[in-house]
Amino acid sequence: MIIVAISIDTEVDHRGDQWIKTAPLRFRSVIDGVPGPLARIFAAHRARPTYLLTTEVMNDSESVDVLHRLEDGELGTHLHGEHVPPEARVPDPAGAQSWDFSCCYPERLERAKLVSLTDQFRDRFGRAPLSYRAGRYAASGRTAAILSELGYVAETSVTPGLRWVHEFDASCVLDFVNAPQWPYRPAAKDLAAVGELPIWEIPLTILPRPRWWNLGINTYQRLRSLPVQDYPVWLRPSTTSWPWLRWIVQSSLRRARSSDMTVFNIMFHSMEVIADASPYSPTPRAAQRVLARLNRTLGLFESLGARFLTLSELADELERRERTTRWAA
Fold first, then answer.
1. CB neighbour list of residue 275: distance below 8 Å, 6 or more residues apart
2. Residue-wise DSSP of 124-147
3. How many other β-carbons are positioned within 10 Å of the β-carbon of residue 209?
4. In this predicted structure, which of 168-177, 257-266, 269-278 has the lowest mean pLDDT?
5. What is the C-alpha to C-alpha distance for residues 307 and 3, in angstroms, rounded to an integer?
6. Residues in contact with 329: Cβ distance below 8 Å, sequence separation at least 6, in sequence order
7. CB of 203 closer than 8 Å to CB of 179
8. How big, in percent rounded to 5, are the helix, strand and coil portions of the chain?
9. Which residue of 3, 62, 148, 249 has the fewest C-beta atoms within 10 A of its own C-beta?
């Protein structure tokens, strides 16, 4: 069985040349992109996306109206902590860039911001959110424990194989190098480790590139006196070409040949499908390329007989399978 989740960081538009929010704030990617090209592609493949919403989106009445009218998919939350009370460091996000690693806040502050964001969602949509991704992937085992207490069933911040160091505070590190590539219950002490928490971690689908590719890249880096490092490839239509997207799917299926279920987690930002709303899509042509790659990738999964589930639906399926296996044992 192949299961595909599509998790979308749903945010205010950014500038086409830098990761800086527009001033004044614009929400074209939500108001036009979500019910327009994204809805058409998802409907064509019967795909069920999960939109993870920032506080700015939930503060915009027109965006909330559009999201209320969605007929398929799921809404969850996405925390960029500097804009969320209490102690919002940048209460007005217009013209700002998001830098914070929210899991590096003191525990009381991270908890308070997660409660605030969750309450905001409940106020706007009349129900509790079930799925979450941290802004800048900045989640920890502590984050997952708090989310579990708040009733979330799916967390999706882990980027397997990657280690992130905060630009202004080298003591704040997100180490996902050894994280599993498939869904698991995380540990309260380490989000990248299998543990005891009731929430499900749904990692992003990220693979190391083939050895021959890294050898060529590393040789080039040495010749140019550049830092020698490998670059994994993401199942992300905004940054990954179609040949590599297809390679990820095929390679993952080969690796999982002995498993009866293979899970993929496609991610991108809502802004990346609208021209001049992110540095990845500065022009209409660039935005169309992202949409074309997304459409082609979903078509590949459809041809393979994949099931498209939202993040909370995937968590329910994992729970059901775990329970069935436990009873069988």
1. 16, 281, 282, 283, 284, 286, 287
2. HHSS---EEEEGGG---HHHHHHH
3. 17
4. 257-266
5. 5
6. none
7. yes
8. 40, 15, 40
9. 62
What CATH number does the domain located at 2-328 have?
Answer: 3.20.20.370
- pLDDT tens across 56-86, in order? 999 999 999 999 999 899 999 999 999 999 9
Site of tokens 């911040």:
157
Rounded Cα gap, residues 171 and 292, in angstroms: 40
Could you tell me how many residues make up the chain? Answer: 329
**Strand locations in the chain (E):** 2-10, 49-53, 74-79, 131-134, 154-155, 163-165, 173-175, 200-201, 206-207, 233-234, 262-269, 307-308
pLDDT band at 329 (very low <50, low <70, confident <90, very high): very low
pLDDT digits (tens, 9 = 90+) for 113-141: 999 999 999 999 999 999 999 999 999 99
Question: What pLDDT is attached to residue 219?
Answer: 82
The domain limits of the chain are: 2-328
How far apart CA 41 and CA 271 sit, in angstroms, is 16
The pair of three-digit structure tokens given for residue 31, joined into one six-digit string = 């108001």
**Peptide bond preceding 198 in cis form (omega within 30 of 0):** no
Residue 177's identity, in one-letter code, is V
Selection from 327, 52, 315 nearest residue 186 by Cα: 315
